[in-house]
Structure formats: structure tokens, C-alpha cells
TrEMBL record:
Pfam families for the chain: Methyltransf_34
InterPro entries, per database record: Methyltransf_34 (IPR021463)
Protein name: Uncharacterized protein
Chain intervals for the UniProt region annotation (Disordered): 1-20
Highest taxon in the source lineage: Eukaryota
Length: 264
């Protein structure tokens, strides 16, 4: 989340308000479910835990709106409860453990909602309503597609996925950020045309979001387009060797692309 944090610092509205007032990071996650709400809660915890008395500011709060075609609702609700309540302790827990027991994130700092819907079948008006519901006052927000966009290209096709991205471009508040993470390299390619020629996911995305023709025409997206502010074709996520897990986990590579919505 570091690239997002740096970009948000330049656009204070994305994650906050005037200095000294309560800051709120608003997120809409397409293809979002259990992993996204857990990661978002962990991010809020880390940011607020790093604050010092000298910061003199309110804690960062977060609002996440998850949208997916799968029935994640009960899981998201259960996870939200677990993330914002005290963990259960053994009756044999030490006094120190009981005294320091705390929820990962304060319930007043995290809001979440889940909507079961298919991003590829949402109309422009429906998408606009979803984004308006998430931010409420037209201020910028963070939109995420985490290991989702390549699946949309693969299952929904180039046409429907491009239409979704164009509708998103036309309806997202100016200054908003779009974060895309996916598998790297040949794992994220989509076939185009009768000959099924394969193109990298990030090339298709840039062609849709950044192409000059779009900037010259205000008809399709209301004069809005995206600027790329960070892009990494292959990044390693490595597990800490000092931490053990009850199930086997592996290091992994991913690609990252971060955009900011602007108006021509």
C-alpha cells in the first residue's frame, strides 16, 4: 500500500480532511471479499499504531465498499465482527495477555459493506450510484481491482471489460486513485480477435485508460481519463522468516499499477 499512501498524501481529500480533523480513507473494491477487508483493517491498524503523540491528529478511519458476484456477504460480516472485537482468550491467559488484549482495529474506525453484483453488467448509472454511495460527498476515493482485472478480461471478454473501465473513468470523482494488482507476466494475458492474439493485461488497460484518442474526446468519458503514477511489472512479496503460520504459505510475485483520475 505504500504507493497508494504516497499518492494519497498529494491528494489529501482521498484519505482525509483538513489537518487536525478526522481523516477517512474511502475504498471501493471490485472483486472484493474476505482478503480485502482483512487487508484494509490491517492497514488501518498499522497506520494508527505508527502515530505518535506529536502527530496531534485524529486516527485514520476507513470505509470499504466490497462488490463481487460471489456471495461474500456473510463472510465479510463475520470477518468485520472478528476484526473489531476483542479476541477470545484462554481462561489460563496471563494477566499481561488480558491487559493488552485488543481488537485489530477499533469498531469506530472501520466501516464495511458488501454488495453482490457483477461489475461487467452494471450500467454507467449503477456504477455512478455505487461510487456515490461509497464516498457520499463527491470527494476522491480509492478504487481497487486486486487479482480481478485479468479474470474479467478472461471470463467477460475485452468488450465488456473495456466498457466497465470506461464507465468507471466517466463516473469516478476527479483525483481518485485506481489500484490494480494481478499475477505477473504470461499469467495475465488476454486473447483478442479471431486469431486469438494475446496481449498483456497492463497493455490493454493502458490502451483503454491512457490512449490519446480518449483525452481528445469528451463524449465517452466526460472529459476524464487517467494518469499512471506508479507501475511495476514484477514485485516480490516475501513472507517474514520470523513468523510461522498453521498452513503452508509461499512467497509470490505480482504486478502493480496505480492511476489517478484527472479531467482534460
Amino acid at each position: 500500500m505504500l504507493p497508494v499512501e504516497e499518492a494519497s498524501a498529494e491528494d489529501a481529500e482521498v484519505s482525509g480532511s483538513p489537518e487536525g480533523s478526522k481523516k477517512n480513507l474511502r475504498v471501493v473494491s471490485f472483486g472484493g471479499g474476505a482478503a480485502e477487508i482483512a487487508a484494509f483493517a490491517a492497514y488501518l491498524h498499522l497506520v494508527n499504531a505508527a502515530k505518535t503523540p506529536e502527530d496531534n491528529g485524529e486516527p485514520l478511519t476507513g470505509t470499504i465498499d466490497l462488490v463481487d458476484s460471489a456471495p461474500w456477504g456473510p463472510v465479510v460480516e463475520a470477518l468485520h465482527g472478528s476484526l473489531t472485537t476483542l479476541p477470545a482468550l484462554s481462561k489460563y491467559a496471563s494477566a499481561v495477555a488480558k491487559a493488552t488484549n485488543a481488537a485489530l482495529v477499533d469498531p469506530d474506525l472501520l466501516s464495511s459493506a458488501f454488495t453482490r453484483d457483477n461489475a461487467l453488467t452494471m450500467s454507467r448509472d449503477q456504477l455512478a450510484g455505487r461510487l456515490e454511495t461509497a464516498n457520499g460527498d463527491g470527494t476522491p476515493l480509492l478504487v481497487t481491482l486486486l487479482f480481478t482485472l485479468n479474470e474479467l478480461y478472461t471470463t467477460g471478454g475485452i468488450g465488456k471489460t473495456t466498457a466497465f473501465l470506461m464507465n468507471l473513468t466517466a463516473t469516478v470523482p476527479e483525483g481518485s486513485l485506481l489500484l490494480v494488482l494481478d499475477s505477473p507476466g504470461s499469467y495475465s494475458e488476454a486473447a483478442v480477435g479471431k486469431e486469438s492474439k494475446k496481449y498483456p493485461m497492463h497493455w490493454l488497460m493502458d490502451h483503454c485508460l491512457l490512449k490519446p484518442e480518449q483525452r481528445e474526446s469528451a463524449q465517452s468519458t466526460g472529459g476524464r481519463y487517467w494518469e499512471k503514477i506508479d507501475s511495476q511489472d514484477s514485485v516480490w512479496f516475501r513472507l517474514s522468516e520470523s513468523v510461522t503460520y498453521p498452513i503452508p504459505l509461499e512467497n509470490m510475485r505480482y504486478q502493480l499499477h496505480l492511476y489517478r483520475a484527472i479531467r482534460s
